[in-house]
Amino acid sequence: MPVKRLRGLLLIPLLLLGGCNLVLLDPSGDVARQQSDIMIITTLIIALIIVPVLIAIAVVAWRYRASNKQAKYDAEWDHSPQLELWVWAGPLLIIIAVGAVSWIGTHQTDPYRALDRIGSGKPVPADVKPLEVDVVSLRWKWLFLYPQYGIATVNELAAPVDRPIKFKLTGDSMMDSFFVPALVGQVYTMPGMQTILHGVINKPGEYKGFSANYSGAGFTDMRFTFHGLSTRDFDAWVGKVRAAGGDLDLAAYDKLREPSRAAPVQYYAKFDANLYDRVLNMCVRPGEICKSQMMAADAHGGEAMHDMHAHDAMPMTEAPLMPSKPAPAPAASAQ
Question: What are phi and psi of 132, to 5 degrees?
């Protein structure tokens, strides 16, 4: 076969990969980059044993083929200490190496762990405060709350370049998975529970975000755009949201939580300061008892439950969200 034709056949698999998005291997966020490095290093370590085994299979099959009369055959052979050493020592070293890389890397990229760097060799500046974003997964859309700026958006997320981001995430009625491949790994959102995620974007651009967990008919439309912006552009974006946005009050949230597909981008210039905590504690509507209140009542033996039922029409901003610290138990008297 001519060399050019053979070379062309070998390039066919690369052409088939031409439409693939390799964002997982070349992300724009430092945390995602560390996760990519762990995946690549682990794959290379595993290849140290897989590739030689595949080569050995081909060599053995060729050398000891039926037509090769020169191959030595020993019917009495049953053991080789040298071969046993290679068979057991090689995989053992591979397992140790993969375990060490995975253990160290997993702890370094723990989603609950606050960032101590914004890039390789770039620690987080002492005067930089993380951007706080509260995330609520709805059917089938994403709600993003910016408590530091008092704004909210639907299906659009933005953050300044090289500024740490702290996400607090929960779900309204079902479990989803928040995932921006270029930024950071995925993390689940669940009703009545909160997850934490830390990340940073290092390059300006528009990136895809979506739900990586099947959640019903509108799952394929549960997508959003993440904007990595310069500090000046992010300030301009915040101004645009404030200028074009409305008020995310209780009535607006009730309408927003209704199931919908391919929901358009929406802006809110302000929202109730307790909205995220209300969603987390599953007591958005007036009269609903917050989960934290139930826990506080349960900690006191349930005696306060009838008092909670008495507050059947409390405004969103008045009902206590977190239980007060239990009083210390009285010291036992000396006998």
Answer: -95, 130
Q: Which residues pair with 145 in a beta bridge?
A: 134, 152
For residue 160, the cross-strand partners are 229
pLDDT digits (tens, 9 = 90+) for 141-160: 999 999 999 999 999 999 99
pLDDT score, position 316: 44
For residue 131, the enclosing domain spans 118-280
Residues 290, 276 share a domain: no
Q: Do 276 and 316 touch, CB atoms closer than 8 A? A: no
Tokens representing 313 are 């029409």
Calculate the CA 140 to chain-centre distance.
18
- The arrangement of strands across the sheet holding 184-189 comes to 156-160, 223-229, 205-211, 176-180, 184-189
Residues 239 and 294 in one domain: no
**pLDDT tens string 227-246:** 999 999 999 999 999 999 88
Provide the whole-model pTM. 0.81
162 and 293 share one domain: no
Residues 6+ apart with CB under 8 A from 270: 150, 151, 152, 245, 247, 248
- The DSSP secondary structure of 48-84, one letter per residue, reads HHHHHHHHHHHHHHHHT-TT-TTS---TT----HHHH
Listed residue (150, 169, 180) closest to 241, CA to CA = 150
Same structural domain, 270 and 289: no
Q: Is the pLDDT of residue 1 over 60?
A: no
Residue 76 lies inside a defined structural domain of this protein: no
Six-digit token string for 156: 């659009």
Residue type present at position 190: M
What pLDDT, on a 0 to 100 scale, did the predictor assign at position 330? 38
The residue behind tokens 């946005």 is: 245
Per the structure, how many domains does the chain have?
A: 3
Strand spans (E) along the chain: 117-119, 122-123, 131-138, 141-146, 151-154, 156-160, 165-171, 176-180, 184-189, 195-199, 205-211, 223-229, 246-248, 266-271
Same domain, 245 and 149: yes
Q: Where are the alpha helices (DSSP H) in 64-196?
A: 81-108
